[in-house]
Amino acid sequence: MSKNITRKDFLTSTSKYAIGAVAGVAGLNMLSGGKIMASNNSYTWPWAYQTVDPEEVRVKAHWLYYNEKDCCSGVFGAFTEVLKEKIGEPWTNMPMEIMLFGRGGGAGWGTVCGVINGGAALISLVVNKADSTKLINELWGWYTTANLPTDAANAATYLDTRCPGALVQNIAGSPLCHPSVSQWCMVAGKKVGDAERKERCARIAGDAAAKTAEILNAYFASAFTGTFAVPVSNADCTPCHGTAMFNNVMTNMECQTCHVDPHEGEPSAVAEIGGVPANFELDQNYPNPFNPTTNIRFAIPQEGKVKLAVYDIQGQLVSSIVDSEIMRAGSYQVEWNGKDNAGVRVSSGIYFARLTTANFIKTIKMNLVK
To answer: Which of 154, 296, 325, 369 makes an SS bond possible with 166, Cβ 3.0 to 4.6 Å?
Structure first.
């Protein structure tokens, strides 16, 4: 049986519903910390992007690192903060905290460094799958080969100046947090808990944000060209472990960063010949010209990872004399026997010996005559 509703009853009932709706919204507001998290809007991936000033996101990422966002979320959040001002939705609805898991190489596990993890996530959000791989490859490759923190990072003006002055730089040789931080601590003579180590990671967060902006700006201007190449030292490993034989390795990382002595038991001819030097040095080999062997002297003023390799005139790796070994400070001499990594004597010609350690790289020219 139907019931007649008077105008008074209608107004009373609808007022209750209205009050209930307001209370519900207020409850959502309290639960979300003052932000309405739900949205009926839908957005197509990839999301919109506009040109970003690399130095602006550098400073923002550095500040966010120190203000509860750490490395990964700090880099990602630097972009969300800028893009929500430039574009608005959907960036206004993207919480940077979604990337907090990446801190310390993933919840402190020391895997992928958070700064490039955050940069890669941002790239994946605004670029299609095929192209994003190329851009992420460039970002991660840059991280493994750059002197970090960069000169730009050491010279920048930050909002949070807890540790002023230039910091020691080093080349990580790896996209992983663990070796990157550990090697820097070794070179800088610092501990993980020191203020300088934290500042180093804050500045590298700024570096990675700036590099991500440079890559994306170039991509959206149709001007991106990748420069990273797989390390030539990997040529020692891929003939056996690549597709031609075992096919049991898949990586763009430098093999020797982790596998410093892959063929244990092979003799090493490195001899320590003196005390601790004041500077990094790589002396001209002697004799030069030579046949069949020559001596190479080098010096390192601090403990660190050392790589001494011989290349031919085309830039192809010939011999890995010192394979990314951790060596203490000192002066050293090593003999090159004129053979390649396979033990085959090389032909006459010009060869180059290159020393890489910490932030020092030097090459000398050698002449093998027969």
So the answer is: 154
What amino acid is encoded at 208 in this protein? A
Which has the closest alpha carbon to 115: 47, 211, 227, 49?
211
Q: Residue 21 contacts by C-beta under 8 Å, 6 or more apart in sequence?
A: none
Per residue of the chain (370 residues), give pLDDT as tens: 444 555 455 444 544 444 344 344 334 343 334 444 445 678 899 999 999 999 999 999 999 999 999 999 999 999 999 999 999 999 999 999 999 999 999 999 999 999 999 999 999 999 999 999 999 999 999 999 999 999 999 999 999 999 999 999 998 889 999 999 998 998 899 999 999 999 999 999 999 999 999 999 999 999 999 998 776 666 667 666 777 666 777 677 776 666 655 554 444 568 888 889 999 999 999 999 999 999 999 999 998 889 999 999 988 999 999 988 888 899 999 999 999 988 899 999 999 999 998 779 999 999 999 8
Q: Which of 292, 133, 357 is nearest to 226 (CA)?
A: 133
Peptide bond into 239 cis (omega under 30): no
Pick among 2.30.29.30, 2.60.40.4070, 2.60.40.10, 1.10.760.10: CATH of 232-368: 2.60.40.4070
pTM (predicted TM-score): 0.64
330 dihedral zone (left: phi>0; alpha: psi -120 to 50; beta) = left
Residue 151's contacts (CB-CB under 8 Å, 6 or more residues apart) are none
Closest CA to 257 of 340, 325, 168, 188: 325
Q: Identify the three-state secondary structure at position 135.
A: helix
Tokens of 209: 């944000």
For 307, the token pair is 């790589």
CB 355 within 8 A of CB 282: yes
Mode of pairing for the β-strands spanning 330-336 and 294-300: antiparallel
Q: Domain residue spans in the chain?
A: 54-220, 232-368
Name the residue type at position 121: A
Describe the chain by its helix, strand, coil percentages, rounded to 5: 40, 20, 40
